[in-house]
Amino acid sequence: MRDRSFILARPVALVTAGVLVLAGCVAGGDEGPTVTRGTLSGGITGAGATFPDPLFQEWITHYEQRVETGADIDYQAVGSGGGIEQFLADAVDFGSSERYLQQGELNVARQVRGCAAVQFPVLFGAVVLALHDDALDGLVLAPDVIAGIYDRRITRYDDPAIAALNPGMELPDTEILPVHRSDGSGTTYVFTRYLTTEVPSWAQRYAEGTDIDWHEDTLGGEGNEGVTRAVQENAGGIGYVNQSYALRNDLATARVVNEDGTPIEPTLEATTAASEEASIPDDFQFDIDDIGGSGYPITGANWIFAYECGYDDETAEVLRDFWTWVLTDVEADQLAAELGYAPMGRELKRRVIEEIGRVNGG
Q: Tens of pLDDT along 43-57?
């Protein structure tokens, strides 16, 4: 990842931009391999979620080297809370989060530039429970048990509540060390949203949020990287991370009981199945709750935030073109799948591409 300072000020001349239409733009990855175009120049900066960062860096490298060689894109993974903060401070060209902007934040965004914010999802991903002990790979956990672990009511792996879900598995008499995000995090939002909707006692004591008041006997880690490292380095460690971090670090993961009572492994197929159950309104403000069938129950989306006005022409063109390419190129979808993220379906992509056309359009 490149280390450059954010652009803290920019020209705010309003420009009217037409919707960028690419050949086969709603084909959902059917148009064939990437072709180098080299027609754009300009740079954009972004900040936010660590959840999609491995994929964003792959997308950026591929786009800069093989699609628009004159483009320069810098994304810094500072956490969803930081991404929202920097976007609303007008310190970056786009923000990223696993939580959509809510009405109060949309009101602030309108005050920043005198025009509306544009927000749209670009991918889905699973939040997995990663485990220090490889022998526990496939351990079955239910929502009330996960809540009990993080609330420190369940403190050992051979606790009867865990044993009841895992008949025949030899469970160690090891103390559980729950690891959480210490920074403002969309991954935390997805995880705590799940527990809040499934476990009444969690909803009453902790609720959902990007940053909550964790039990004092849990361990914090900054970013998905910090949680991953804490799980790796501490016996008994368990932590919630994006699936790509568990895959990249070859971590054991738990199966989680979904709404139908089925233990589900966090696979790409199970994430896709969960995303397909989501009801997505026109404003793209949604959560993925009450997942059954073959869907993995702790699944979230990642949103991108931009503005309807205030970009110079080159910045707006790169911003629209990059995110349109992400949604239309077969290799962009392949990169996502390789890292454990679920690309969006054809119809949702079409809707999102229309939304991208609003960037700097008003």
A: 999 999 998 999 999
